Structures are given as C-alpha cells and as structure tokens.
Amino acid sequence: MTLDLHRFPCRRGAPDEPRSSPPWGRWPPSAATAAAPCGGPVGQGCCGRKVVGSASRGTSLAVVDEVQIVRIGPDEWCEFREVRLAALRDAPGAFGASYADWVEADESRWRQRLSDVPFTLVARSTDAPVGVVSGAESGDAVELISMWVAPDHRGTGLAGRLVGQVVAWAAGRGRDTFLMVRDDNEAAIRSYARAGFVDLGIPDGWPPDAPPERRMRHSSS
Question: N-acetyltransferase domain location, by residue (predicted)?
Fold first, then answer.
C-alpha cells in the first residue's frame, strides 16, 4: 500500500500538533534547524550521537528500502527535534504550532512532548530521519497525528507503512484509529480511503472561520 499524500492529519486543540495538513516539505533541513541544542552537528543527536544509531527504547518495526521505522521515546528527543523542526519550518502556516514556538524549546519540553504522546515512530535512513508519525490516545480511539515524510522518500510506500504501524498499534489496544484531513485535499482523502479509512465528513459544529476538515476512521475489527 502506498499513500501519496501532500498533506497530513492533525490533532485539533493540541498546541504542538498540526492544525491542518502540511506539505511534504524540503529535506534536509538547514544546519540551524538540524543541529542539536547541545551543539551536535547536523545528522547527529545530542552529545554527537548519530541520529541513525540505536534507540534506547526503540526496536525496528519495519524496513523499507533501507529505511528503518523505529519507535522512540523521551530519550530520543534530539532525533525527534530534528525531524519535527524540519516539518514545522517547511510548513509555517499549516500547523497549530510554529517553528518559532519550538526552535528554542529546551530538552524538558521535547521530552514532555514524547511522554504526552505515547506512540511516536521515526523513519531512519542511513543519514538522517526521513519521516515521523504519532498516535495519540483520544477517548476510545487513537488519533493519527504529526505525519511527515521527506520528499525523496515519497511514493516509496513509506508513508503507508507509517500509517499502518499506527493502525496496528491502535488495533492491538482494541481501538479504532481516526484522523482529520483538509476537505480540499482530495488526493489525501482518496489515499486514506484506500488504506481502509472511512470518510465520516466534516464534524457538526465545525468553526465557520476555520478551514473545513473531514474526520476519517479506521476500524480495529
């Protein structure tokens, strides 16, 4: 399954998550974006750790054309910072949070983000992270948020596998997966439908001054 999405779902109401779907963006980020706050060079995490090195929490979940998909936690905050800032910088008007909101964030804030959202995956190539997605528990379901894939890995099936890992994690907990997608993003809506998501339409009471978004849901059964 290949998802060829130009925009991605959002978690409304969370200040550090996208309010609407960002584009794929540019890669790699600039040195100012990618450098770890502890002074590590581009392509490395804190204290000079290689971004593609072993994660203390993560175990490889899948390999796509030499790209590993790994679950990360607070100890991998530097790696998450690198890929998250790349997405925020590339889509300054598409997120509830902005690059400026997070570029000066300290270690504790990045760790807290990874603690608050219990399921976060990073796709690692040999040089740098090339994708990210999270699953956030929301009531009796899991919301798919923060989806981003580097443009040079678009169309490889990586996006679909990232989505599939979130769906599988939710199903393992007996929960459905849902997401929000811009109403005008017809390509993304079709792609999510092919991935098994059902279009539930724009929720009742949607703010009239906000770009309309459709709710889509994937059943765990």
Answer: 81-218
Residue 80 has pLDDT above 50, yes or no: yes
- Residues 96/18, Cβ–Cβ less than 8 Å: yes
User: Is the confidence at residue 149, as pLDDT, over 70?
Assistant: yes
Which stretches within 17-157 are classed as H helix?
31-34, 77-90, 99-103, 107-116
Average the pLDDT over 33-53 and give the result. Answer: 40
Tell me the C-alpha distance between 36 and 53, whole Å: 15
Does pLDDT of 28 surpass 70? no
CA–CA separation, 38 and 48 (whole Å): 9
How many whole angstroms separate alpha carbon 92 and alpha carbon 100?
A: 9
Token pair, residue 59, equals 């175990």
Cis peptide before 92 (omega within 30 of 0): no
Tell me which CATH code domain 31-196 carries.
3.40.630.30
| pLDDT value of position 189 | 86
Tell me which of 41 and 195 has the higher pLDDT: 195
Rounded-to-integer distance, Cα 140 and Cα 42, Å: 40
Q: Where are the domains of the chain?
A: 31-196
